[in-house]
Amino acid sequence: MIYLSSFKLSNKKLKNPNIYPYSVFKDKYIEPFSFAPITIFYGNNGCGKSTLLNIIAGKLKIKGKESPASNNYGSENYCQRFENECAYSLGSNEYGVPFYHLPENSRYIKSEDILYEIKKIQQKAILEHGLTYDYMQDGLSLEKAQSILDHKKEQRIENIIFSQEKYSNGETSLQFFQEYLIPEALYLLDEPEVSLSPANQVALAHEINKLAHYLGCQFVIATHSPFMLGTLDAKIYNLDAKECQVTPWYQLENVRYFYDFFKKHEKEFTQ
């Protein structure tokens, strides 16, 4: 599904070229981005892929958008000005009927959002374990202590349920995506591979492929993970290039670095 068809960044120039976010793309020639069911913004650190996602989220007024730190010079808010100067177009459904708004469940998920959820859930688990222990110290049975604790909860149990064992950050992160990525929505994902092992990165990529091709989702993803790049059935924009052209995953610098590294050590794998 194509909910977001294209996005055009502001091409305005300022007298001061170092003002954010104008400074991020000042040396690049960028045609409007044309989106596929899965589109990737690839680039090394500092290339602007996270900034780009946040600008898109702000322009679309999508859930999870982040307000950048104030960038006022005099009375001018340059972050808001840049966002206002951008433009986008929406797509259409499989019958050619145009979309006039994005699906309600559309969301921008940043890597720090995932880490925050992991920390929040782990702290909740530790707190509940501590309260249960305190009740047992007062002479209550485990069953009675748990019953009292359950009665005290004022909010519903978290969507991601944890057993008594402490899950790793990677397992928690994968469960987070499994819980929050639902059909028929647009998702902007900023480095979703954070905390995931290579195997889980591939598992997440397969899940994204399935959601995009069978369950009516569209994804715009910022990543430089070779495992995500090589598994996702995606259109890839190389933000490291001066003209941000579409590039096959196996030609990207970060992927070639991995290839050259393992090629150099190939004999060690055949011993």
Automatic annotation (TrEMBL):
<keyword id="KW-0406">Ion transport</keyword>
<keyword id="KW-0472">Membrane</keyword>
<dbReference type="GO" id="GO:0016887">
    <property type="term" value="F:ATP hydrolysis activity"/>
</dbReference>
<dbReference type="GO" id="GO:0005886">
    <property type="term" value="C:plasma membrane"/>
</dbReference>
<keyword id="KW-0813">Transport</keyword>
<keyword id="KW-0408">Iron</keyword>
<protein>
    <submittedName>
        <fullName>ATPase</fullName>
    </submittedName>
</protein>
<dbReference type="InterPro" id="IPR051535">
    <property type="entry name" value="Siderophore_ABC-ATPase"/>
</dbReference>
<dbReference type="InterPro" id="IPR027417">
    <property type="entry name" value="P-loop_NTPase"/>
</dbReference>
<dbReference type="InterPro" id="IPR003593">
    <property type="entry name" value="AAA+_ATPase"/>
</dbReference>
<keyword id="KW-1003">Cell membrane</keyword>
<keyword id="KW-0410">Iron transport</keyword>
<dbReference type="Pfam" id="PF13304">
    <property type="entry name" value="AAA_21"/>
</dbReference>
<feature type="domain" description="AAA+ ATPase">
    <location>
        <begin position="35"/>
        <end position="242"/>
    </location>
</feature>
<dbReference type="GO" id="GO:0005524">
    <property type="term" value="F:ATP binding"/>
</dbReference>
<dbReference type="GO" id="GO:0006826">
    <property type="term" value="P:iron ion transport"/>
</dbReference>
<dbReference type="InterPro" id="IPR003959">
    <property type="entry name" value="ATPase_AAA_core"/>
</dbReference>
